[in-house]
Amino acid sequence: MIKPVKVALAGAGAFGIQHLDAIQSLGVAEVVCIVDEDLQKAREVAGRYQIAQTGTQLEEVLSQPDLDAVILCTPTPLHAAQAIICLQAGKHVQVEIPLAESLDDAETVALWQQRTGLVAMCGHTRRFNSGHQWLRERILTGEFSLRQLDVQTHFLRRFNTNALGQPRNWTDHLLWHHAAHTVDLFQYQTREEVIAANVLQGPIHPRLGIALDMSIQLKSRSGALCTLSLSFNNDGPLGSTFRYIGDGLTYIARYDVLTNGMGEPLDLDMAEPVLSGVARQDQEFFAAIRECREPNASVASVLPCYRVLHQLSKQLE
């Protein structure tokens, strides 16, 4: 019997809940502690998932010798520093997207991963959604040639709230968070670096202090294009839709659902049971720990995404 990985979850918000559900479905890891600055919320979530230990200080949890790993679902501004603290404490770490809000911080996390040799992974979930995986296999075999990736990432977000509509004390960002999903996926699917990148943004919102609309264009070395529209002003279906345009073939991916260009569902006929993208992501994290190997979406492998984001951020200054 495989010994379960003992993991602490930091951040009892919307994405923390998704990871808890995913871990329950996998049965290969045990969440031993919930950490959140709101102790009452941590206790409520821990009670729902029958987790005995809660706390408000990540550093105190890291001192536990039997703890193997940490999943960070904390506010974005804390990601890089907390990932480094976990690695310095000898714990494997998975950081929810984004890894950092600057290229310097992302590269510092990668440096600490190299120094420690531990598993350090970032939650670039699109790499793990079943539809995107199915398409990647066909790109690798030459069955599908990607010419253009058209993406709409649209939400209605007028206040600092999470995916559950709960208030939070930090501001999400279209570039460093939501664009990171697509920039990384485009490079992952093409297996090429971005050689041209352009960005435009709308007015800065007076209360949130960020632009609520953004448009990004990317070009890969072989000439594949990516057009990304992002908005927090959208009153309609929420989330991201990816239109893959090839040589006469078109596919539309929305999280774990894949259709043809006309919107007709496809049977992916995947050998493994269909898991959510977050569950596949966690499955890879725990497998990499057990097998002592670099995971898909390792900190090192997602750095090209943050280099592009850095380039785009400079254009907006």
Overview of this protein structure:
The protein has helices at 14-26, 39-48, 58-62, 79-88, 103-116, 130-141, 174-190, 277-291, 299-316, and strands at residues 5-10, 29-35, 53-55, 69-72, 92-96, 120-123, 148-154, 194-201, 213-220, 225-231, 239-245, 250-254, 257-260. With 317 residues, it is an alpha/beta fold. The chain folds into 2 domains: 5-123 and 277-298, NAD(P)-binding Rossmann-like Domain (Rossmann fold, 3-Layer(aba) Sandwich), CATH 3.40.50.720; 126-272 and 306-316, 2-Layer Sandwich (Dihydrodipicolinate Reductase, domain 2). The protein has a 7-stranded mixed beta sheet, covered by helices on one side. Strands 3-2-1-4-5-6 form a 6-stranded parallel beta sheet, with helices on both faces. Helix 1 links the parallel strand 1 (5-10) and strand 2. The mean pLDDT is 94.
- What structural class do the secondary elements suggest? alpha/beta
Q: What CATH first level of the largest domain would be assigned?
A: Alpha Beta
SSE string: EHEHEHEHEHEHEHEEEEEEHH
Strand order of the largest sheet: 8-9-10-7-11-12-13
CATH architecture of the largest domain: 2-Layer Sandwich
Q: Summed up, what is this model?
A:
The chain has 317 residues and is an alpha/beta fold.
Search tags:
globular; alpha/beta; 317 residues; six-stranded parallel β-sheet; Rossmann fold; Dihydrodipicolinate Reductase, domain 2; 9 helices; 2 domains; 13 strands
